[in-house]
Amino acid sequence: MQAEVRTRMLWRVGLLSGLALAAAPAHAFIAYISNEKGNTVSVIDTESWTVTKTIKVGQRPRGIEFTRDGKFVMVAVGDDDTIQVIDAKTQSVVDSLPSGPDPELFAQDAAGKILYVANENDNTVTVIDLEKRARIGDIQVGVEPEGMTISPDGKTLINTSETTNMAHFIDTDSRQIVANVLVDARPRFAEFRHDSSELWVSSEIGGTVSIIDPKKHEVTGKVTFEIPGLRKEAIQPVGIGMTKDDKTAFIALGPANRVAVVDTATRKVTKYLLVGQRVWHMAFTPDEKYLLTTNGVSNDVSVIDVAAQKVIKTIQVGELPWGVTIAP
Amino acid sequence: MIRWLVGLIGLSLAATQALAADPALIGVGYLGLAGTRSTLSLVEQPAENDGLAGARLAIEDNNTTGKFLNQRFTLEERRIKEGEDAVRAATDLAARNGFIIADLPADALLKVADSLRERGTLLFNAGAIDERLREADCRSNVVHTAPTRAMLADALGQYLVWKQWKRWLLVVGSHDEDKLFADALRRAATRFGAKIVQERTFEDTGGARRTDSGVTLIQRQMPVFTQQAPAYDVLVAADESEVFAAYLPYRTWDPRPVAGSAGLVPRSWDAAQDQWGAIQMQNRFIKLNSRRMTALDMQAWTAVRMIGEATSRTNSGDVRKVSDFIKGPDFSVAAFKGTKLTLRDWNLQLRQPILLVDGRMVVSVSPQEGFLHQVSELDTLGYDRPESKCKLK
């Protein structure tokens, strides 16, 4: 039995190296999934597409992201009022950050030195110096801050507030709000185009994605969704993923159990991909071959082949998977 | 205090240009009766600020948003004592507030609504669940955030049918509201295919709700009262007057679950609700009011948030403009129930999911899967457009 497994593995290695000669080298990446109810982080190997480790973390892990150097994974454990730091080498929790109460999502600056954390219970964004592990400031924002992202030039921090229904534009130097843009109900996630020309904000209850001109601070258009046979209330956009060429956006639609593929030029949905139940967030592999989505209710992760725009695999993870990050 | 200061500093730094002009002031009044009603369960005894506390939180939420839009919300409370004229109190409140959240009995609410009609004040009915306020007695200046009896009964009925508990033993109290709730439950049974195998009336013979040796007596009374019933799956109690329903669970002659006014209860909100981001709001509520949030608190919160939502969408504090937007086709509000809430345009009732709660947990949320509707599944709860007798004037 064991011998057989080994033979098969050898065969696979042989096949892979053969492939490597023909095409670009197929890298294995490591994905970390936060499981909101399980209080765990699942580690997925993207070559075997299996869970290789389950790490116990604090209570209610949600926002999860690699540090810029790829050495650590930060995971917001909201009910413990902190962000835990996982060493990617040992795959264990080694530290925690003073995040402020109930952290949910966060964003890092380009250098990986400053961390901005949305504190849902406090209507604030907390600023943390990552090297000193110290809280260095707070910014007052709207009710229930959630979505966080930084403009590609690093000058603007975006925070969305769920009950205020705004995207707040914060100058990262002065740490002051420079503009507030009203979007549809319960904005949850914000993503810039890589060329900085647009900011996309998903509204979970509004059921739309607003496209904002970040210079004029105006909504210039909205992506809307329509799925035959599905009631409109079930379409609740959350996570957004944009390809590096900015041509295609993927939008997780929550209880609609689908990811919408959007042509960014026409701002229209070209395809709906059926994934697991209540799809939350997503992350591309660095080579952009695959997109991983977390499916909260079905407790799994869907793997999308980005070029083919097809779901190719489903991986069981912990209870209520929420966030995903992949090693750079 | 510190948070407030930080907020103030943030505000003055963030929006100096925007605050050059005076903020738009939006006055919200809260009109309710003085005193509280008595419940069988001591833990369910409402606080004196039941309802008002929810409005207060929504005012805070609106002001957090308002600082970005140069809008400021204020709340003024008015309680009507016994024998006091509701219309006079309402008129006084309306002099300073374009919007009034009302927790009043149906008749008083109608009088107030008619007296404020010319003035243009928009009323929000946060407390009364009477069907007639949305049917024959509907008013174009009253928006209802409280669900109706039929919505509550339908929410429960859908779940009991989904659960295959289709044989109901209906026990009805002897007061008018109990009978109205029983009507709604009978209607739900007919609509969703349940059968009421027998009806019994529990007469209110008076007596105290608190006694020193109450339990011993109740333990003997309730099994006797429920014996010799035809075969049934669930006992459904209609007891809005809080006379007997809470005594039924664990004391029925046959071992059966209890629902309706005790056991599994349909409500617009519950302190145990933590889905769809609700935990943030529950935390904010506890921090502000030092107690847990009730359904009435939520109904008042939603009303004040609807005003805030409309002022931010219209970027205006003008009562007329804001009222028109609330009643218009583009209005919706998020209220931690997993879906946007909208108004039924034919009677200004807020569409909303109804929670089924047991006092400790949220057991389920209706509408249940499989109850379909061509417009909104939320319209499977309560009277629908084709049945409505309301003619808004």
From TrEMBL, chain A:
Keywords for the protein's UniProt record, in alphabetical order: Signal
One Pfam family of this chain: YNCE
Positions of the YNCE-like beta-propeller domain: 26-95
InterPro entries named in the record: Host-pathogen_enzymatic-act, N2O_reductase_N, PQQ_b_propeller, WD40/YVTN_repeat-like_dom_sf, YNCE-like_beta-prop, YVTN_b-propeller_repeat
Signal peptide location: 1-28
NCBIfam families: beta_rpt_yvtn, PQQ_ABC_repeats
Protein known as: YVTN family beta-propeller repeat protein
Organism: Bradyrhizobium hipponense
Phylogenetic lineage: Bacteria, Pseudomonadati, Pseudomonadota, Alphaproteobacteria, Hyphomicrobiales
UniProtKB/TrEMBL annotation, chain B:
Segments forming domain Leucine-binding protein: 46-203
Signal peptide residues on this chain, from the entry's feature table: 1-20
Domain of life: Bacteria
Tagged with keyword Transport: yes
Gene3D superfamilies: 3.40.50.2300
Keyword Ribonucleoprotein: no
SUPFAM superfamilies in alphabetical order: Periplasmic binding protein-like I
Keywords: Amino-acid transport, Signal, Transport
GO biological process: amino acid transport
Family stated for the protein in its record: Belongs to the leucine-binding protein family.
Name of protein: ABC transporter substrate-binding protein
